[in-house]
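Section 5: illustrative case.
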């Protein structure tokens, strides 16, 4: 728990209004966001898997076609492994790990983020079996959508699809090259040999994408309905070349984006969105950074044109672009598309945060048609979008599942909506899944922590219904940018809280100014239904993550409606202590408690310890 939140707690006790800008626990949001990628894993799960309701799945992917495609990520609430959004997600995770490495490390999440990246890049290495061959999809969206079943029970066809010299996919290969190049930078300081391997694949994939040009959804028609390449492949070629320049420093790649600036639309496209499908804004901001770093050299003139388009994106998002601004809801949310709009919000907020840092480092500002924009303005706007996601919106709901007191519980996600195989051992078939689980009025039995759902419509309206996939389905492409965004905002919140003053606030013990050395792992170990009510047996592991014993641990449990076993209640409301026989929690040791209730899980936090 960060210092600001603790100060806010004490301020509320004495009836004062807190005097700080940051009012959300971005570190908690960051930790939950990373967990979402574990819930989306396909393949043989590792021993250190934290999301315990998931099991092994897709263990024979690709085998019928003579290739090992086990691993990777499911893209959303179904079980298809779509290569384009998966590669984009890995690129964004890697960019976050590069731009905000220190921030992520300070929250003790860098290892988990690198694991999430590697889960994707290990799969891409398997999929790239020859220089000019890339397997780009496993499963078919149409047949998959006829079934509502757990990944562990999959009965749908696992047909794999590829692009090659005769059936090109420059957008798919280009994005995968970008992912490998970005990941090679992220891993360079920690695993140099793996970094070199990724870079070798990235170079081959870029060469393949550039030499054999074509749209991937022409070669893999089953992808078109779900992830169509509307903007074409030129943006991915520029995107891949830009990341390869960052990874290698080789002039060849910088010259490529300059020579093709006009023909591929890099200096022509002025855009107001950035996503798995359209990379122009990302390219333009990356190349503006090259210019601001003083590395433009003979390419300065063209790089300035890229920078102008980057500035256009910023001005359009901040509503300072004259006649062309990105649409916004009445509640202040960027609005781009009806389906899963929040994925465009998270990516835009991430870009603004990255660009804010670059402008600040260069002591630069942006001149928009309607205003002069300072670096802090970009960060403030990005924060407003993050805060909307976390609950500062007309519905007062968090659109990040598992965060806050109120969040969607009918998430459009097969695995989350069906009891885990550890609880319900029998197979859940296609039709049974729809009849017994999809149509249930109760919330999902498995909390999909860190999932960013599609979010509200253009009028800030939201309906938490499982069938409402436009609004309640999460995607890895939407969640990936949040890792970097939340880590940066958490760092800023710490800086703000240290500089804040609160009159008449009781003194805060020193140990509360640092990260609390206690970790909680929630899991559901059983479920049953009585009449119309479904009950869940929740188990919470408490781990001492420090090198010293912890005593007098006092916990707050909010939103608790059932009984608790394994803790001792105190006279204070919603407050518990470790049982009397457990005098101390040793370094690295764990204990657990159990509670039973219907509905969402309770919120557990640390109030005090020695």
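Designed sequence:
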């Amino acid at each position: 728990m960060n210092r600001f939140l603790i100060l806010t707690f004490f301020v509320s006790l004495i009836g004062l209004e807190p005097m700080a800008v940051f009012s959300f626990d971005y570190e908690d949001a960051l930790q939950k966001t990373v967990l979402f990628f574990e819930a989306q894993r396909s393949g043989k799960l590792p021993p250190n898997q934290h999301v315990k309701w998931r099991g092994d799945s897709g263990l024979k992917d690709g085998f019928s076609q003579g290739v090992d495609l086990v691993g990777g990520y499911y893209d959303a609430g179904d079980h298809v492994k779509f290569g384009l959004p998966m590669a984009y997600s890995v690129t964004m995770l890697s960019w976050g790990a590069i731009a905000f490495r220190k921030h992520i490390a300070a929250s003790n999440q860098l290892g988990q983020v690198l694991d999430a990246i590697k889960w994707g890049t290990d799969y891409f290495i398997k999929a790239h079996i020859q220089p000019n061959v890339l397997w780009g999809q496993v499963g078919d969206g149409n047949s998959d959508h006829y079934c509502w079943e757990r990944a562990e029970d999959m009965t749908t066809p696992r047909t794999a699809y590829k692009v090659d010299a005769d059936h090109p996919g420059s957008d798919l290969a280009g994005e995968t090259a970008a992912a490998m190049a970005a990941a090679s930078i992220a891993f360079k300081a920690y695993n140099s040999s793996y970094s070199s391997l990724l870079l070798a694949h990235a170079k081959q994939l870029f060469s393949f994408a550039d030499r054999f040009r074509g749209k991937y959804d022409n070669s893999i028609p089953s992808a078109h309905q779900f992830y169509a390449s509307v903007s074409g492949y030129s943006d991915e070629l520029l995107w891949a070349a830009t990341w390869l320049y960052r990874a290698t420093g080789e002039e060849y790649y910088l010259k490529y984006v300059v020579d093709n600036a006009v023909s591929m639309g890099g200096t022509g496209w002025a855009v107001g969105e950035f996503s798995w499908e359209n990379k122009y804004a990302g390219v333009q901001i990356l190349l503006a950074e090259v210019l601001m770093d003083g590395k433009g050299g003979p390419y300065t003139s063209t790089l300035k044109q890229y920078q102008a388009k980057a500035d256009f994106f910023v001005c359009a998002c901040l509503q300072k672009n004259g006649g062309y601004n990105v649409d916004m809801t009445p509640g202040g949310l960027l609005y781009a598309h009806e389906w899963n709009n929040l994925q465009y919000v998270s990516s835009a907020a991430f870009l603004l945060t990255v660009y804010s840092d670059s402008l600040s480092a260069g002591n630069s500002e942006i001149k928009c048609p309607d205003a002069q924009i300072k670096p802090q303005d970009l960060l403030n706007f990005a924060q407003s979008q993050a805060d909307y996601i976390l609950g500062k919106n007309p519905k007062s709901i968090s659109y990040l599942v598992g965060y806050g007191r109120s969040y969607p519980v009918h998430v459009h996600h097969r695995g989350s909506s069906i009891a885990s195989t550890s609880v319900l051992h029998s197979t859940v078939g296609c039709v049974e899944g729809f009849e017994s689980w999809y149509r249930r009025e109760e919330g999902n039995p498995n909390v999909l922590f860190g999932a960013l759902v599609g979010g509200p419509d253009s009028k800030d309206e939201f309906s938490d219904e499982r069938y409402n996939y436009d609004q309640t389905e999460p995607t890895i492409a939407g969640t990936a940018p949040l890792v970097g965004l939340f880590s940066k905002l958490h760092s800023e919140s710490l800086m703000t809280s240290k500089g804040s003053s609160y009159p008449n606030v009781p003194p805060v013990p020193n140990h509360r100014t640092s990260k609390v050395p206690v970790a909680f792992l929630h899991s559901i170990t059983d479920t049953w239904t009585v009449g119309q009510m479904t009950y869940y047996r929740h188990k919470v592991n408490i781990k001492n993550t420090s090198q010293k014993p912890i005593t007098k641990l006092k916990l707050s449990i909010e939103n608790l409606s059932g009984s608790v076993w394994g803790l001792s209640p105190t006279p204070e409301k919603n407050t518990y202590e470790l049982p009397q026989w457990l005098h101390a929690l040793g370094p690295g040791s764990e204990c657990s408690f159990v509670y039973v209730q219907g509905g969402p899980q309770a919120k557990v936090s640390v109030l005090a310890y020695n």
